[in-house]
Each structure stands twice: as structure tokens, then as C-alpha cells.
Amino acid sequence: MATITNIEDLKKIYKRRVPKMFYDYAESGSWTEQTFRDNVSDFEKLRFRQRVAVDMTGRSTATKMVGEDVTIPVALAPVGLTGMQHADGEILAARSAERFGVPFTLSTMSVCSIEDVAEHTSKPFWLQLYMMKDTDYISRLIQRAKDAKVSALVITLDLQILGQRHKDLKNGLSTPPKLTLKTMANLATKWRWGWGMLGTKRRFFGNIVGHATNVTDTTSLSSWTAEQFDPSLDWEKVKKIKDEWGGKVILKGILDAEDAKMALNVGADAIVVSNHGGRQLDGAISSIKALPSILDAVGNKIEVHIDGGIRTGQDILKCMAMGAKGTYIGRAYTYGLGALGEQGVTKTLEILQKELDVTMALCGERDILNVNRNNLLIPKDFIPEWL
After folding, report:
1. Domain that holds residue 231
2. Does 382 map to a domain?
3. pTM value?
């Protein structure tokens, strides 16, 4: 195998090894995919200030996210169907994150259940929650999270209805894959993936099957979303869920300063500046461009995190220098998982830490806690003034 030095190397292996419908599920956005592309390309517009003749010994990338110690300012983001990217994917990713010293966030739409992940890890992880019409199911899910010692609830706010994702519709995305001639032809070339899936019992939505009632088709992400996701979600409902949970709450999907203020009002512990990886409102602003206005609105009153487009340790440093207190990676660790399983997730985190550490040093900083906008060269038109 060729030497792996960056996330792109893992992505190339991932593309070869994972079935097309699951590769496309991770590597796509909604509609024209403009926001999906902007999430990545807008990072390229920021530049670093190089500083020299600074003592670079004793560097540290460690910090805290919602009070939890982290080796680098990164959490593994909630990614649906992770257990279809690699057999037992959520378990493998959670174990890797625990060993490395960063949080793992389990998606409601995971293949491995809350109980599966808790059984195979020793430290608390985070749970991402989608608001659903079945409030009894939500209450039981919250109780299951409490029983599993989940340490933070990440409530996703930007998926009341599903954005139109053309590739998923054309591929007939399902869990497990529906065996059409086209699908079988593709699966026949992914023997390593198939061998792993044959060896596991976890092939369905583990948090839903056997737990939710009156669900007609639990294999289809789109049909479950259409049936169960709650389009009437409002801030009052968010407050009720927060109170029912009673622990740390992170609100994900904030892209507007006014919504950031509303999140502050309901008493969230942190917000995640996010456009759902460009998979919901196509044409929305990129996360990194949305970050400054949100920090200006609430930055010193609530912990502000960010996801979307982060593929390198340099991207992480840019987020932290802009003022974020933490970042989330979804696609980056999915590439590693699909490429090399648990080892690949660890490789992803090692690459990111190395890139972050080296770049921080060359910017003249020894501690991630000290980076700020003085470490960046920001174009005058980077933060646009909209009419």
C-alpha cells in the first residue's frame, strides 16, 4: 500500500473499497452542491501569518470542548449510516476516538445502536438527536442515552425536512442495500466490504429497529425522514427536550446570528455553526464564512463550534484562529473508516494532529489556546456584506 500522508490519500482508498451508494451518500450535497463545494473552497481564501525565531518547544494541541478534555479541538461528527461504510463502523470509530482522546458523536440514524457503542467503549460518548413526531420514541431514546452514560446531547436543528439529494435518490440509498442488478454489479467489486458485512449482525438502523413503533420501512432513510421527522420543531420544543435531558446540550445547525441568539436564550451549552455538510439548504453560506458573524453575536456567552468542509489540520487551525472553541469532522473520518476500518479513523486523527501542530508552530504559536485572528490574513471581502 502506498504511504498515507494526508486525508486525500485515505479518500482514494475509501472510494475503491466502499459501495458507490455509500460513497455518494458521504461525498455529496443537495441540489447543485454549491454549498457542499463552498464549505471546502472557502477555507482556501484564508492565509496564515508566518512567524519566525519563536521558541517552538513544548507545543500543545490540547483543549476542552463543553468541559471535556480533548487531545485536539475535534469531535467526530454524527454521520448517518456509518455502519454501512464499514461493518460495525460506529463501534470502530467510537473506540478510535476514545483511545485518541476526542469525543465521538453517535447519530440517531446509526447502524450500531446506543447500547452497541456503550458496550464496546469505556468512556462516555455524545448522542445526536433528530426531533421526531413520535414523542414517546424520543423520550425512550433520551432514557436509553442516560442509561448508556452519554455525556452530551447534540440536537440537530436543520433537518426538519430532508434536502433533495440527487445522488441518494438515483442510487436508491437504503440500509442494507436493495439488491438490484446495478447494485449487485457494484457490490461484486467490493469484496472486502462485503466480507465484513457478512460477519456482522448490524445491518439496520440500530437505534430505530425494535424501538420505534408504526414505522413501515426502516431500511430507507428518506421514507423514515418523511414519516417521522418533525417539521413543526420550534424553540419551545428544543427547550422541552433540553429540560427532559437535563445534561449538556449542543445545538447543531446554526448558520445565522439571530438563531445563535435564540440558542443562547434556551440555555444551550454550545452551538455548532453548520449547514449539514451542504446536504440541506443548497445556496446557504459556508460554515467558515458564517462563523464570524455568529461569534460577534454570541461568542463570549456560549461555546461556539463549527463543522463543514474540514479536511486538514490547517482547516482546524483556521477555525480556532477565527474564534471557534472546537471543530467536528464527518467526511474526513468516514474516509479513514471506509479505507482501513478502526485503524483508518486513528490515521485520520493522527494526520490532522500532525498538520495542526506543524502549522501552529510555523505560525509562531505553541498552544492552541493562544491562537487568534492575528495568526490569519483574512481578505477584506471574505466576510461579505449582503444587501
Report:
1. 7-377
2. no
3. 0.95
